[in-house]
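Posting for a labmate who doesn't have an account.
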Amino acid sequence: MISALQQALADRPWLDPEATPQIIIDNVSKTYDHVTAVDGVSLKIYKGEMFALVGGSGCGKTTLLRMLAGFTSPSMGRITIDDADMKNVPPHARPVNMMFQSYALFPHMSVEKNIGYGLRRLPITDAERKQRVHEALEMVQLGTLGGRRPHQLSGGQKQRVALARALIRRPKVLLLDEPLSALDKKLREQTQFELMDIQYKVGVTFVIVTHDQEEAMALSTRIAVMDRGRVVQVGTPPEVYEFPQSRFVANFVGSTNLFESTITECTTGRIKVRSAELDQDLMVDDRGRFSLAQRVCLAVRPEKIRLSKTPSLESGMNCVKGVVWELGYLGNHSVYRVKTESGKLITVSAQNVRRTSEWSIDWSDEVYVTFSADSAILLVS
């Protein structure tokens, strides 16, 4: 019988010191004409992971994906897949396949022929080829559309055809470059779940490049955040979102409020800081990583802040007075921008849990912004 610890390590192999990574990226760099696109990146990716590379334009994530595929060679460093060094292995001989952002479907071929195109050089019988195409069509729920041409499909259906074509050769690793970027918001959200379901069924390791932080958090087992060619943080979606290790990560993954501060008091598990921007003291639950008089940045997510018309008297709560300066209604939630007495703007996100035609808190209302000491985090300034 599998113990709880064994099950946890099976689900999160990166926590098991004895687990063997399927992909090892060891100190890999890529330079183009004296411009460094990827700078000393090291990553370990485990079999069956849905691993996401995220970052802004030009951060090096697509270059790293192309080096995994073999379309680009590293200037320095080493890439191995299943303990095999990929240095002199051409793209067609690697145990990987790539799904491109544009889908790259052949317009003159039917859906069946598009999906089966990668099988044409494999030493298999016509019957086996037909069976594998049929299985691929069923896997992406396109069983009745095999005779159609790409122009007769919707955007979501084209995306499924491209996915089926990429998986039909049964690669060990599937590389996906912005796989959902061509879809509208609602279809993208629906397709995210379909993609996760397919990945779970086939058991193939997925490495995804995306600039969409929400998409990365919804899809992936782990995320690597990249900035200027370097990996600045790796972790599960909750780890990266709740415990960013830098101002860049806190700002890039989701939205956050940042307050430049100075530490004025350190006690066991509780730190007091003085925020010059707010002209008041704030409390943060944190451990002894910091010292007195150290410059830090206090970060708190908008959804972890409460708005009220009366000040909070609860222990361990930070309370800042202000006025509703801007207000945006976004359907399921509203976004408030509160201008404090010192002039600092604080963003607050509140779920619209009740259907109402009137705001309980409206423009120009005097309010109190409240957040607990354990909902904020300190970052090195």
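Reply:
Got it, the structure tokens are right above this. The mean pLDDT is 90.
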